[in-house]
Amino acid sequence: MEFRRFRGTDKYLTSSALESAVNCALALERPLLVRGEPGTGKTQLAEAIASALGLRLIHWPVKSTTRAQDGLYVYDTVQRLYDSRFGDGDVKDIRRYIKHGPLGQSFASRDRVVLLIDEIDKADLEFPNDLLHELDRMRFVVTETGDEVIARERPVVVITSNAEKELPDAFLRRCVFHFIEFPERDLMARIVRVHHPDLDQKLLDQTLQAFYSLRDVDGLRKRPSTSELIDWIAVLRRAGIASVELEAGMPFLGALLKREQDLLVFAEAASRGRRPRA
Amino acid sequence: MFVPFLYELRDRGVKVGAQEALSLAQALGLGLHRGTLDGFYEVARALCVHREQDLDAFDRAFAHHFRGVPDDALALTDELLQWLEQPAGKRQLTELERQLLERIDLVEARERLRRRLAEQRERHDRGNRWVGTAGTSPHGSGGIHPTGIKVGESPGGRGALEVAAERRFRDFRSDVTLDTRQIEVALRRLRAFVREGALDELDVEATIDKTARNGGELEITMRPPRRSNLRVLLLLDVGGSMDPHAHVCERLFSAASRATHFKELRTYYFHNCIYGRVYESAALMRGIPVLQLLQDCDPSWRLIVAGDALMSPWELQSSGSRWSFGEDSGAPGIAWLAHLAQHFLHSAWLNPEPAVAWYGTAEVIRRVFPMYRLTQDGLLEAVQHLMRGGGRH
Question: What is the pTM of this model?
Answer without folding.
Answer: 0.60
